[in-house]
TrEMBL record:
Pfam families, A to Z: TB2_DP1_HVA22
Regions that span the bilayer: 12-31, 43-62
Protein name: HVA22-like protein
Membrane topology reported for the UniProt record: Multi-pass membrane protein
Organism this protein belongs to: Quillaja saponaria (Soap bark tree)
Length: 121
């Protein structure tokens, strides 16, 4: 099989672990944690992964002719996990900095203004 064989089937070797096993494990940990932020993060991942799978099932006749499709899917899923993790961490840090700088009362006013704006729509 050699190195070339391993590289050729890299998506089959690494793909299930990266796209299914680790997200499944992280989702279970998120469900058990008291925070809802990580629940939202992994729910977003699974919804987007489902869309990718539906796309793949719908257009399989075309995707068969694209030899790098499995690698593109693998790279996209890895990128998606990283982006979702960064977004949740950045949002948390921003909120913590705002509360530290202006106090919890200012943050409550921002939340109430956002809720009022959301009700208008």
């Amino acid at each position: 099989m050699g190195v070339l064989g391993i590289v050729r089937h890299l998506d089959s070797i690494i793909g299930p672990g990266v796209m299914l096993l680790f997200p499944l494990y992280a989702s279970m940990r998120a469900i058990e944690s008291p925070s809802t932020l990580d629940d939202q993060q992994w729910l977003t991942y699974w919804v987007l992964y489902s869309f990718i799978t539906l796309f793949e099932l719908s257009f399989w006749k075309i995707l068969v002719w694209i030899p790098i499709w499995p690698y593109l899917k693998l790279v996209f899923c890895m990128w998606l996990k990283k982006v979702l993790q960064m977004m949740s961490l950045d949002a948390r840090k921003s909120v913590e900095q705002y509360i530290h700088r202006y106090g919890p009362d200012a943050f409550d006013r921002v939340i109430k203004a956002a809720e009022k704006e959301a009700r208008k729509r």
